[in-house]
Design goal:
Elements: E1 2-4, H1 6-17, E2 25-32, E3 38-45, E4 53-57, E5 60-64, H2 66-69, E6 75-82, E7 85-91, E8 97-98, E9 104-106
Parallel strand pairs: 1-6, 2-5
Antiparallel strand pairs: 2-3, 3-9, 4-5, 6-7, 8-9
Length: 108
């Protein structure tokens, strides 16, 4: 379904430890917007919806809503740091276009 690299998992765990509830799970969803039409939304959540799919990816419990599942088949989530700072990097084989920031994408 999706893959989370060890560096992304480490960063997610670091960010989770700063949350008011360190047991919150990681939510990944796709929303309309951004410069290419769709964008990834990453956040921590304490409640699941009945339609959520819960996955264990590299030790991270990821909640994905049913609407987003179709957009992220075989998504790879990585984290890297460069001179501009650190950030999550998305590699989505379904995307036909991405914007310069890498968070927004388009599908056919």
């Amino acid at each position: 379904m999706i893959q989370i690299s060890p560096s992304a998992a480490k960063e997610i765990q670091r960010l989770r430890s700063k949350q008011s509830n360190p047991d919150a799970f990681f939510r990944l969803c796709v929303q309309a917007g951004g410069c290419s039409g769709l964008f990834y939304d990453l956040k921590f959540d304490e409640a699941t919806e009945q339609s959520d799919c819960l996955l264990d990816c590299n030790g991270i419990v990821v909640a994905i809503d049913a609407d987003s599942l179709n957009y992220i088949q075989n998504l790879k989530l990585d984290y890297s740091e460069d001179l501009m700072g650190g950030g999550f990097r998305f590699s989505n084989p379904q995307a036909i276009a991405t914007c310069g920031c890498g968070n927004s994408f388009a599908l056919e």
